[in-house]
Amino acid sequence: MVSWGGDFDEFFCCLVHLEKEDWISNFEKNFYGPTLKAKTVYDKKEKIVFFGDFEETKRGTIKIKREKLKL
């Protein structure tokens, strides 16, 4: 799984096995690509995070923390 920021200078990359039930369809919004909640990936026991991390907000939700590329 790869996630990037708006300027394509921040990235999150991990290896995780996902099931069809893990994805949220966006067909109702006329958008092809499905979405995925950060908590779904965070809760998976078997994952390898290559770049980036997870952070818990003050409200207890999980966010993906992207890292800036250092060129």
Task: Characterise the protein shown here.
The protein has 71 residues and is mainly beta. It has one domain. The chain is 8% helix and 35% strand. The chain contains one helix and six strands; from the N terminus they run ββαββββ. The chain starts with a strand and ends with a strand.
Q: What structural keywords apply?
A:
71 residues, 35% strand, 6 strands, mainly beta, globular, 1 helix
Q: Write down the domain tally.
A: 1
Q: How much strand?
A: 35-45%
The end-to-end distance, rounded to whole angstroms, is 22 Å
Q: Mind describing the biggest β-sheet?
A: 4 strands, antiparallel
The backbone outline, from C-alpha atoms, is globular
Radius of gyration: 13 Å
The secondary-structure class comes to: mainly beta
SSE pattern: EEHEEEE
Q: Quote the average pLDDT.
A: 90
How many β-strand stretches? 6
The number of helices is 1
List the topology elements.
Layout: E1 2-4, E2 10-16, H1 38-43, E3 47-51, E4 53-56, E5 62-65, E6 67-68
Antiparallel strand pairs: 1-2, 2-3, 2-6, 4-5
